Amino acid sequence: MPLPDFSDFQLLILILSALLLFLYGLEHFSKELQAVGSDRLPRWLGLATRNRFSGLALGAAVTAVVQSSSAVSALVVALVNAGTLSFSASLAVLLGAKVGTTATAWLVSFKLTQIGPYLIVLGGILTMLPFQIRVIGRAIFYFGFIFFTLDLIGQSLEPLRQDPWVVQQLARASVPWVGVLLGALITMLLQSSSVVSGLAVVLVQQGVLSPEAAIAIVIGANAGTTVTALIASIPMDAFARRAAQMNTFFNGVAVLLMLPFVGPFARWAIALGDSPDQAVAIAHLAFNLGLALFFLPWTGWFGRRWAPKGEPTPSPDNAPV
Q1: Is residue 294 packed enough to be buried (19+ CB in 10 Å), middle (13-18) or exposed (0-12)?
Q2: Contact 232, 78 (CB under 8 A)
Q3: Are 161 and 167 in contact (CB under 8 A)?
Q4: What is the 3 state secondary structure string of the chain?
Q5: Mean pLDDT over residues 22-38, rounded?
Q6: In whole angstroms, how far apart are CA 26 and each of 30, 61, 85, 143, 146?
Q7: pLDDT greater at residue 212 or residue 195
Q8: 8 Å CB contact between 248 and 291
Q9: Structural contact between residues 71 and 225, judged by C-beta atoms closer than 8 angstroms
Q10: Distance from CA of residue 7 to its chain's centroid?
Q11: Contact 244/233 with Cβ under 8 angstroms?
C-alpha cells in the first residue's frame, strides 16, 4: 500500500518511530529469550571452556537466536566477572558472536519481513496459554515484531528514493572510509549492529543505498558494536574489562586491515550475490567469519599473554585446545 504524501518533518518522525519500534522489539525479544533460558544460557556458555571451537559455535548460535551481538558480548563479560567463564574461553565466544550477528542481514535479504504479522498473531495467541507456553509466546511475538517494524521501516524509507539530496548524501558512504566511519558512529549511537546491518539491507532493497556503500557501513558497524561490552565492563573486575577490551581489539584490527580493500571486497560480494541485498549479507558474513577464523587459533596465546594477573590457571580439561 503506497504511503500518503508527507512533509519532510512528518517523514522524519515516521522513520524515527519505525526505527525506535525496531529497537524496542529487538531489546524485548532478547530479554524474553534470556528469560526463557535464564538458567540454561549461562550454563551453555560455560560449556565453551571445553575448547575454542565449541566456544566459537556457541557464541555464533546464541547470537543468531538472540539477534544481538551486543547483548551476548555484555552477557559474556558478566559471566567472566562472575567467574563462570574463563578469560581465555570468553575470547572464542566473543568471536563466535561476530559470526552469529550476521543472521539479521540474511533474514532481511531473503525478504522474510513479511512473516512478521503472522508471528505476532501466533505469539499473541500463545501468551493466552499456561505459563511456560506464554513465555515462549512472548518471544515469538517480539520476533515477529522485529520483522514487522523492519517492513515498516522499508515502507517509510520509500519516499527517500525520490529525494535527490538524500540520495546524494548517502552516496558519500560509497567512499570506503566514509562508509566505515558512518557505520561505526551509527552503531555506537544505536548500540546494535543488528539494527545497522538490517537497515543497510533494507536501504539497498529500496534503491536508496548502493550495495558498495552498505557493505562499507556494515564493516564499520563491527567496530561500533564493541562499545556496549566496554560500557558494561566498567564496574566489573579486571578480567571482565580485559575481555571487553579484547573484543574491541579484534574488531578494530579487522576493520583497519580491511579498510584498504573495502572496494575490491564489495565488488567480489556483488559478483557472488544473486541480488544487491544478498551481496551485503554475503559481505557481512564473509568479513565476520574471516575475522573469527583469523583470531581463533590465537585465543589461547592471548589468554595466557594478555590475561590480568591473578586469574586461576585453568585445568587441562578446561583449557582451550
Answers
A1: middle
A2: yes
A3: yes
A4: CCCCCCCHHHHHHHHHHHHHHHHHHHHHHHHHHHHHCCCHHHHHHHHHHCCHHHHHHHHHHHHHHHCCHHHHHHHHHHHHHHCCCCHHHHHHHHHHHHHHCCHHHHHHHCCHHHHHHHHHHHHHHHCCCCHHHHHHHHHHHHHHHHHHHHHHHHHHHHHHHHCHHHHHHHHHHHCHHHHHHHHHHHHHHHCCHHHHHHHHHHHHHCCCCCHHHHHHHHHHHHHHCCHHHHHHHCCCCHHHHHHHHHHHHHHHHHHHHHHHHHHHHHHHHHHHCCCHHHHHHHHHHHHHHHHHHHHHHHHHHHHHHHCCCCCCCCCCCCCCC
A5: 66
A6: 6, 17, 26, 8, 6
A7: 212
A8: no
A9: no
A10: 33
A11: yes
Tell me which of 70-79, 99-108, 216-225, 233-242 is least confident: 70-79
Return the pLDDT at 37: 57
Query: With contact defined as beta carbons under 8 Å apart, do 64 and 103 qualify?
Result: yes
Q: Give the C-alpha separation, 204 to 214, whole Å.
A: 7
Query: Hey, where are the domains in the chain?
Result: 8-306
Residue of 108, 21, 33, 85 whose CA lies nearest to 299: 85
> Cell numbers at residue 247, please?
573484543
Residue with cell 512473516: 115
- Quote the cell numbers at residue 65: 537466536
Maximum Cα–Cα distance across the chain: 66
Residue 67 phi, psi dihedral angles, 5° rounding: 65, 30
Which pLDDT value is given to residue 40?
Answer: 64
By CB neighbour count within 10 A (0-12 exposed, 13-18 middle, 19+ buried), where does 268 fall?
middle
For 162, residues 6+ apart whose C-beta sits below 8 A from its C-beta are none
- Give the amino acid at 238: A
Q: Which own/partner pairs from 256-260 qualify as long-range (CB within 8 Å, at least 24 positions apart)?
A: 258/219, 258/287, 259/176, 259/177, 259/180
Q: How far apart are CA 67 and CA 150, in angstroms?
A: 14
